[in-house]
Amino acid sequence: QVQLVESGGGLVQAGGSLRLSCAASGGTFLIDAMGWFRQAPGKEREFVAAIKRIGGSTNYADSVKGRFTISRDNAKNTVYLQMNSLKPEDTAAYYCAADRGYSQYLGGVDQYDWWGRGTQVTVSS
User: In sequence order, what E strands does 8-111 have?
Assistant: First the structure.
């Protein structure tokens, strides 16, 4: 019903910035919220940030508050993740996800219904 494609990953030095994009297609009217998750080798996938399609309320993981900003352009069916002051600990594959559940809590991996294939972010020290 929904397809997601991430872009914008790459290699940056600590303290640098990247902007990730996630383009949604298909039944985008079904989407309640869009989220970003990340997964480092040998670790579980973890929540990063999310935004509601209607209203634009946001949620962030404590580890990225003040450094990352999630935003959306509903006319383009696209969400963005602006990442500033990057740290080596931010190195991971970043995944975009879409949730149709109309819930207030947006940080659970299992609540999301559609996923992109991911884009790699590597931060060197």
Answer: 10-13, 18-26, 33-39, 46-52, 58-60, 68-73, 78-83, 92-99
Q: Looking at the predicted structure, is the pLDDT value of residue 99 above 90?
A: yes
Q: φ and ψ at 26, to 5 degrees?
A: 95, -140
Tokens 């970043």 -> residue: 94
pLDDT score, position 102: 85
Q: What is the pLDDT of residue 15?
A: 98
Contact (Cβ atoms closer than 8 angstroms) between residue 86 and residue 123: yes
Q: In this predicted model, what pLDDT tens digit does every residue of 3-23 receive, in sequence order?
A: 999 999 999 999 999 999 999
Question: What are residue 23's DSSP bridge partners?
Answer: 5, 78
User: Alpha-carbon distance 30 to 27, whole Å?
Assistant: 6
| Pairing mode, strands 119-124 and 114-115 | unpaired
